[in-house]
Design a protein that fits this description.
7-stranded parallel sheet, 9 strands, two-stranded antiparallel ribbon, globular, single chain, 336 residues, alpha/beta, TIM Barrel
Length: 336
């Protein structure tokens, strides 16, 4: 466990591993997503037009207030407009510089990792992919190299390229979206892949010495603790190194938003989201690094839940609840 908390935090893992705090620079490499192409009907039902890019990298969102009202006029999902490679490389330079400035001013540290956060960051021809990754890693002596992607965009050539960067940084991570370990749910949310393809991608990454973080969402439609148990089993059996837990948010411009405004969908309260989060924490292995515990969507893009704790308050209440119940990460882990 991390010092003072009943779960293993990413911050403590980084300090234990590198003897210092390390902060990520989240960048957008100009990628799109195969699930946004016409034959996949506009992408995952929960994903909006920003493609999960870092908030501080988006114009108008670098500083946002928690009491901002929801803006109904938002862009809808679809294929991303193609950007020339030269423009993408130039944009990457600017993003890294902006990220470095932000981290130095806010955290006063020079230890940073490069994090291709937005969209599907391995969805590109190999020559483009290599040019973008090479450029990004040339801009600073990064500690870790982290790439966020989908399990259906990790063929052997991509993995070989990622492995090659282990010579330049201290570690390479790949974030692979899962969201749910249940195929029926994956169909319902239009993920465009099944659980088996996720499992095979993780096994290939592990075979090549690459660490894996995975994203899961609590509160998805038609899911209960039975479905959570299946997702937990997959995480434990695959020995995934890290996890990001997100409560379900309803963002403007998404398919879920359309269901929500028709009254066909509800989201979990803060209290319920804490229960779901604790359920996962107690049943995953104590060795899993916990990188995230909730969504932090800027409120002007968030339709629901509108009344929800901020990160600090959520963690305080989760910690308090777990301590009252004498609960810790992995205390109900059953070995699978």
């Amino acid at each position: 466990m991390s010092r003072g908390l009943p779960w293993r935090t990413y911050k403590q893992y980084l300090i234990d591993t590198y003897s210092t705090s390390v902060y990520r620079i989240g960048v957008d490499g100009g990628f799109s997503c195969p699930n946004r192409e016409k034959d996949r009907s506009g992408g995952c039902v929960f994903c909006d037009a920003t493609g999960a890019s870092a908030t501080y990298q988006r114009d108008g969102e670098g500083i946002w207030k928690r009491d901002s009202s929801f803006q109904k006029k938002v862009a809808h999902c679809g294929p991303r407009k193609k950007i020339s490679l030269d423009k993408r490389l130039l944009s990457l330079e600017k993003q890294v510089e902006k990220g470095k400035t932000f981290i130095l001013e806010r955290y006063n540290t020079e230890a940073m990792s490069l994090y291709f956060q937005a969209w599907t960051s391995t969805y590109a021809p190999m020559d483009e992919l290599k040019a973008i990754f090479d450029k990004g890693l040339s801009l600073y002596p990064f500690t870790e190299f982290i790439v966020s992607t989908r399990p259906d965009c990790l063929d052997d050539d991509v993995i070989d390229l990622l492995v090659s960067y282990k010579k330049q940084v201290k570690d390479v991570w790949v974030e692979v979206g899962l969201q749910s370990g249940n195929d029926e749910t994956l169909k319902l949310i239009n993920r465009g892949h099944d659980v088996e393809s996720f499992s095979q991608a993780v096994l290939k990454l592990h075979d090549n010495g690459i660490k894996v973080s995975t994203h899961i969402i609590t509160g998805l439609p038609n899911e209960s603790y039975k479905e959570y148990d299946q997702t937990i089993k997959i995480i434990n059996n695959l020995k995934i190194e890290a996890i990001k837990i997100h409560n379900l948010d309803i963002l403007g411009g998404t398919a879920l938003f359309e269901e929500y405004i028709r009254g066909e969908l509800a989201v979990a309260s803060t209290h319920r989201a804490i229960e779901h989060c604790m359920y996962f924490l107690r049943r995953i292995s104590k060795d899993v690094i916990v990188q995230r515990l909730l969504c932090e969507t800027p409120p002007h893009r968030l339709a629901a839940p509108r009344k929800f704790y901020d990160k600090s308050k959520f963690i305080q209440h989760l910690e308090k609840r777990m301590k009252i119940e004498n609960a810790k990460q992995g205390d109900l882990y059953n070995g699978e």
